[in-house]
Every structure is written in C-alpha cells, then in structure tokens.
Amino acid sequence: MHEVTYLRPKNLAEAVRLYRTTPACRPLAGGTDLMVMLHARVIRPAPTAVLDLWSLAELKGVRRQGDMLEIGAAEPYTGIIRSAEAQRSVPALVAAARTIGAAQIQNRGTLGGNLANASPAGDTLPVLLAYDAVVVTDRRSIPIDQFFTGYRKTALQPDELITAVRFPLDRQVAFRKVGTRAAQAISKVVMAVSRAPARIAIGSVAEVPLRAVRAEGALARRDDAGAVSAVGEDVRPIDDVRSTAAYRRAVTQNVLHELLHALPRS
Amino acid sequence: MRFTLNGRTATFEGSGARRLLDVLREDLGATGTKEGCGEGECGACSVIIDGEVVDSCLVAVGQVEGCNVTTVEGLADGGRLTALQQAFIDYGAAQCGICTPGMLLAAHVLLQHTAQPSADDVREGLAGNLCRCTGYTKIIDAVLACTK
C-alpha cells in the first residue's frame, strides 16, 4: 500500500505554502468525509498527501467581527453548538449543527469541511445560503451564492484554503431537516428559510445546495401560498437509495409551508 | 509522534495519515476498540480524545499528537470495573459485544457532561452508537442506573 504523507503545518501561513507546493494534496480537518474516502480509496486521482488543518488556531473560534459573526473553518460543530454567541446570533446554524450525525461527528465535523466537500446533502449549506454567508479564504471572500458551481464542485481555486465563514446578523432563519431518523441520518430534504430578505435554500433536492428562486420571488411578494406552490418547480430531485423524487418534492413543499408558518411576518 | 493512551505515553512511527483505529489495534495492541462500519456511522470504534467522544476511524493518527486518548481499556482501574461497566453487566446491556466499548465510552462522556441525564439525554448521547443485538433498552437502563 502506498502511504499517504501527513503534513501538519504550524500556522496558516505554512499551510497555505504547503498546499500551494505539494502536488495531489488534500486538506484535512475533522476527517468525517475525507478519512472515509481515503480509506475506501475512492478519490481520483489518489491523493499522496493530506494537509492537517485541524489544530490551526487561526481556523478555530466563534467571534463577533463588526456586524458579522465569524466562525473558523475548522471549528467543530460542537464548538458552534456550545457557543453562546452562535446561539444568540445564528440559532438556525446551531439547530442544523445539532442534527448532524451524533456527538462523534459533531465533535469533528466543520463548516470548512462541509463547504469543501460540497455535498448537495450538506446539512449546514442551506443555512449558509439563507443567511447570505460569506466564505473567507486565504485570499478573498466568496459570497455563498457563488460558491457551489456544480455537483460537488466549488468556486475554490486548486490551491485555495477556506479559513472562516461570516454571517450577517440581520435576519431570522428557520431550519428543518427531514431524514430517516433524528441522528446519523443523511437528509432527504434539508431547508433554511428567511422572510426578509426572502431566502429559501434547500439541500438534497438538486445537484447543488439550491436557492429556490421562483419561490423566493413569491415570498418577496408576501405570497406564501405561491411560494409553496412554486418551490415544487424550483427543485430537481432524483430517485436514489434514500428517497424518491416524488417524496422529496412533496416534503419540500410541506416543509416550506411549516417553516413559513414558524417565521413571523414583519 | 507521541500521545497519551490510557494514561501512558504511546509512540508511533509511520504515516500520520493512518487511521487512529488501525494504529490502536495493529500497532499498539489496544484491540478493545472495534471496527464496525469504517464510515463514522456506527460508533463501534469510539474513543475519547481530550474529553470528547470521536470515531477513531475518522481520525488520522497524526491528529492526536500530544492528545489524551482513552479507549475502553482505560476505563477500569486495574481489575476494578467502573460503575458504568458493572451496570452494563448487571443489566445485560451487552450481547455480541462489538458495540459495547463504544457504548461505554460515549456513555462515560455523557455522564461526565450531564450528571443527571434523562432517558432522552441518554438516547441522544448514544445516538452515534448502533447496536444490532440488545435493542438499546438495556443499554439505556444501565446508563440511567449510574445516575441514581
């Protein structure tokens, strides 16, 4: 077996340099996706090195940054769940973090990993879309609505590292995940909704975490019923092992109805 | 690299990208930690790293450099079982035993964080640990017995 080289940079600057200069290198944070894929050898081309970002202090923490909340890319979900600042400022993100896996996964999974992995079923990703979060990298800020470019594809450059995610604090977001059971479930439908501005973001219903633009148009006109109707046309669900397209479409409409009910009209 | 395993210094030479699970079992002889799914779904390989329960199949061994790792071998004090381990025996909370080390470690952390957990707290605390034999009720009863 060809051994994968393990690189442990001491700080972000060293991580950035190593990532730029090491071929076939994968960033590693909590490992909840990458370690599984490495062990199963399903990554092509096969990585020859991993760059361990887990213990970099620059990528940890939950803090107010002016009128934004900033969360380090390698801060585990448990840190977000326990953060009084996150509970106050981004309760929908805390709610999403609590639905991810169980304690073992929440102790390791990170926003940076969820973003870089870019699964259409990533549970925090609709929340980030509903908040208009900003993905901060070693070189720039990327608005979340420009981040997902295709199935498991992102706007990141090949040598670009996610360092943090910033959330504006100007809205109320409601969140709901539907899975087979409360814990350890991969979403059949996962949704985050804001009324003002009108944001309806949904996971597991298309090849990317999706903004439902027709439904958002109706919501912006304060037409809740129109939004629930239109969202059925916004989604592009498939039949797979976890669910059927028809079920996902129906549940999407039901969950939107429920979340709009939960969100007060201003 | 070195880390603390059950209170003793453990050293390891080799790629830090290897799974902690494999190094524990194959290099360090700590075979109490079991491999179930290898995908972070079942919790059989749970260990405690710096006070938090994690799946050791998802951890690169390099990531525990300098950390405190506790496996099921580290729970008992010599031959004396913890109250939790004894409760698992008393309540018949183990059948085939593959999930038991992970259940014990997840429950151990739960009891450290929550002194008087409810049955729901126990279910949530053990939600990342699957058992295919006993059906959970006896496991939950055993954990709750340690809170009285």
Q: Can you tell me about this structure?
A:
Chain A is of the alpha+beta class and 266 residues long. Chain A has 3 domains: 48 residues, Uridine Diphospho-n-acetylenolpyruvylglucosamine Reductase, domain 2, CATH 3.30.43; 112 residues, Uridine Diphospho-n-acetylenolpyruvylglucosamine Reductase, domain 3 (2-Layer Sandwich); 90 residues, CO dehydrogenase flavoprotein, C-terminal domain (Enolase-like, domain 1, 2-Layer Sandwich). Helix content of chain A is 34%, strand content 22%. Chain A has 11 helices and 14 strands. In chain A, helix 9 runs antiparallel to helix 10 and helix 10 runs antiparallel to helix 11. Chain A is globular, with a radius of gyration of 18 Å. Chain A starts with a strand and ends with a helix. The relative contact order of chain B is 0.17. By secondary structure, chain B is α+β, with helices and mostly antiparallel strands. Chain B has 2 domains: 73 residues, Beta-grasp domain (Ubiquitin-like (UB roll)), CATH 3.10.20.30; 63 residues, [2Fe-2S]-binding domain (DNA polymerase, domain 1), CATH 1.10.150. Chain B has a 5-stranded mixed sheet, covered by helices on one side. At the A-B interface, helix 2, strand 3 and helix 6 of A face strand 4 and helix 3 of B.
